[in-house]
Amino acid sequence: MLERVIFEDTTTIGIRRMPLWRTALPREEVELATTCGAVLAKRVTLPTGAVRVYPEYESVAAASRESGTPFQDTYRAAVASAESREA
User: From CA 38, how far away is CA 44, in angstroms rounded?
Assistant: First the structure.
């Protein structure tokens, strides 16, 4: 389907293909307690064993709307909660 669109709507006369592989880090879903409400996040483990926590966009947005707090402030609160949790 996409090839058809490319051939019909562009000037290309060939499309290169190659197999791709995805390497994913081990992860788990965690809930972070913030002053804006609970926020879901992914906790990933890097190959070195270090851990990072990534707040989920939709969860931050929902907590932001429900608390009336700006998105960036809610995101920062989630990051701060994750950092204090990992310390």
Answer: 19
Q: Where are the beta strands (DSSP E) in the chain?
A: 27-34, 37-45, 51-55
The CATH number corresponding to 25-86 among 2.40.50, 3.40.50, 3.10.20, 3.30.1360 equals 3.10.20
Closest CA to 44 of 57, 31, 26: 26
Per residue in 16-50, pLDDT (tens digit) is: 999 999 999 999 999 999 999 999 999 999 999 99
Tokens 């879903």 belong to which residue?
29
Residue 4, H or E segment? helix 2-9
